[in-house]
Amino acid sequence: QVQLVESGGGLVQPGGSLRLSCAASGFTLDNYVLAWFRQAPGKEREGVSCMSNTDDNAGGAYYTGSVKGRFTISRDSAKNTVYLQMNSLKPEDTAVYYCAAGRATNNPTADLPYYCSGYVPFRTWGQGTQVTVSS
Predict the structure, then answer these.
(1) What is the pLDDT of residue 22?
(2) What is the DSSP letter of 119?
(3) Where are the beta strands (DSSP E) in 87-128?
(4) N or C: which terminus of the chain carries fewer CB neighbours within 10 A?
(5) What is the per-residue pLDDT for 61?
(6) How large is the C-alpha radius of gyration of the chain?
(7) pLDDT score at 130
(8) How confident is the model at residue 57 (pLDDT cuts 50, 70, 90)?
């Protein structure tokens, strides 16, 4: 069964950190473009970060502007898991966070902004994990 399961969400104070995990089963993450999206109450889903299947955690991922420099996406191939390290959290980061995996285009690295904007669809989604940033 193809499945993504997120974990690691919770309540954190402003300025704090969280690391979200997304474990895959039934398929190998190395073969897919990976992403984290989030959706806050009353807002549309937003692409937070997207990572090419050819990225070996060398810093070539795409980040939306509001999280650049604070969030880091990474993949552990041995554990078949993708992570989102979130530092310097702000109340506006409060949302349900979803991981996703999608087929690679012919040039996945160049297309990462389109993945994160929703123009290139993702075939597999996790169930989401709540992140609340509040004092």
Answers:
(1) 98
(2) S
(3) 95-102, 124-125
(4) N
(5) 95
(6) 14
(7) 98
(8) confident
103 φ/ψ angles, rounded to the nearest 5 degrees:
-65, 145
For β-strands 10-12 and 129-133, DSSP reports them as: parallel
> In whole angstroms, what is the distance from residue 29 CA to residue 39 CA?
23
SS3 94: coil
CB 128 within 8 A of CB 7: no
The closest alpha carbon to 82, from 69, 97, 102, 99, belongs to 99
Alpha-carbon torsion (69, 73, 76, 77), positive or negative: negative
- Residue 24: what residue type? A
What tokens does 23 get? 């474990």
- Spatial separation of the C-alpha atoms in residues 86 and 133, rounded to whole Å: 11
> Token pair of 132, please?
């609340």
Residues 45, 39 contacting (CB under 8 angstroms): yes
